């Protein structure tokens, strides 16, 4: 297929998908996926599950025949997707059936991976931990199920008193966390996807939902197809598929989004269009302190006014590349109280050297203008992984966190968790562990030079492809004989190439699971098919490892009553040895762990629904509370009296976990500052990485699906045609991209799906044969510690 043909095909596919989505929602009976009758395939057993891919949380129906997935359909009763799926979702069942599934534990001997027993594999891990528990680290994922993440969290923080546990969500959602927490005192959005059905305007801040969250994007297309007016504003650094549907495209110079947000605040105050009543009732003002820490310092309204005064449309136009008219339009839009505005963002805002700051500023302009707390008015971050919210954030599998939004550094939080876990006083270590970038830097540094992490256990992620600055943070492990890498996965990956021990993992519906999506929706599913060979559940691996440590006498593997940390009994009071795989299914381990975890969610009013209630539904949005009639009620809009059960009567809006203890949110000022690696004469281009419609993250699963792999078989470099011509590179020719960290060869695609401006390069990261993250830098937000994958200086030349 020629580049032109491919472009036309993809464009038509996008239009067809949007049209189909619109038709399905307008007339559900007209679309096969929303028909209440099952597809006409004989002898299939059907059950429900959330999709395995992104954080949207679409629900699918899984049809099983002869022990294998035989069909996938969108779930017509699911509020998230109403029977519709994206191209990845329709093929999700095929991710289990790649020809190279891992089926037995493998130990590297003399450079070769050799089969070993599960018992030997776990003994090796336990031996290394016993030698030095403080040098063991656990690296997980927003793809961990809630029970998997909770088990890992309990092993590390309740058992080993070791906080060196972090998820790959540190690489994608950490800045959203710090933004929410420092603004409202508690994490995750106040609104839900329902805002997309009520808003007048959607602003995408460095976000491409047409490809990355297509089901959510279809809700907007649906409304337009029914004659509703929904204005879409795309604020970005390159034209994308989302731009094709936008009413306004505002292309800004990378990093200057901070200035643009401050410019909106400037105009609200200068024009007197900010919501004075809302601000006086519900908000405080805050700014960065010298330490650039999470809480900053309190400032007055007059100080805030003075700080934003220099961000006039004229000044910001020169800095950002937006016109004065475009900036004025944004200011007037937020200044209109009759317009309902929903802001959406994802990696463009979060993967930012000032990611926390940019998150704060988006919340600030919504609070300052009063566009918060009513249907259609919401600042909402979107997640890229199916349980980045449910597991990384709610379970707290971050190096500084405890379950339920609590913190290891706070003594009352530690004591609360020690009580729930029935631990001796002082068991939980008060010092935060290493965040992802530092953890891998320590692992890839010789012990003699301060590299004090000696053993790394990786589950449900592929750091050998997804970490930034790969040479420094992953490849430098090669040759370090005292380092031991354990990788659990369903397939060989860039990570298993350097692994010393590879563990075959059960995937998706080969196990029970619970996910939490971007709108606080907790979703449950049951095991439907068996994993291949000796592949086993990640949650079992964690508990079996804990039992090995218990058998070796590690004191942390006992609670204060002397019972095993993962102690469960049957109805007769007899202990269930579910660490022995022969007994793993004697109980529903997911239900046992989830129900143990659930009380942790109450302190911060993140009350998740009971497991048995989740089993009856396609998910419930927390906080979920029991009504007087005994039923369970979800919450759509937090902090708003009309819907949030924890807001006191008569308060209207109440930020009941306010960081200032006065039920007020914080309106932050954070200044614009240049990126640490701006283009220059030597490296004159901006380099940005990201995803494509057909593939998910590192392609471990989607590249095993023939339809998806064939549709997008290789990564590429998008560059402007004039830049290509100036470099002497023609469309389809291979070029060399270089940064200060390395170089790579890759084909060029001009006038393709995305259209970067002159001086900019975009490369997706799904292709393990073309590791763009060898080139990216590890500079990160000082507060969230999230790296910036969207901006670094690069150059190009022909091969």
Protein architecture, described:
GO terms for molecular function: 4 iron, 4 sulfur cluster binding; electron transfer activity; iron ion binding; molybdenum ion binding; molybdopterin cofactor binding; nitrate reductase (cytochrome) activity. Its main location: secreted. With 799 residues, the chain is α/β, with parallel strands linked by helices. The protein has 4 domains: 3-97, Phosphorylase Kinase, domain 1; 106-172 and 387-601, Rossmann fold (3-Layer(aba) Sandwich); 176-382 and 665-669, Dimethylsulfoxide Reductase, domain 2; 685-776, Barwin-like endoglucanases. It has a 7-stranded mixed sheet with strand order 5-4-19-18-17-6-7, sandwiched between helices. The chain has a 6-stranded mixed beta barrel with strand order 26-30-27-29-28-31. α9 runs antiparallel to α12 (313-320). The longest helix has 24 residues, at 3-26. The chain is globular and about 70 Å long.
Short précis:
The protein has 25 helices and 31 strands. With about 800 residues, it is an alpha/beta fold. It has 4 domains: about 5-95, Phosphorylase Kinase, domain 1 (2-Layer Sandwich), CATH 3.30.200.210; about 105-170 and about 385-600, Rossmann fold (3-Layer(aba) Sandwich); about 175-380 and about 665-670, 3-Layer(aba) Sandwich (Dimethylsulfoxide Reductase, domain 2), CATH 3.40.228.10; about 685-775, Barwin-like endoglucanases.
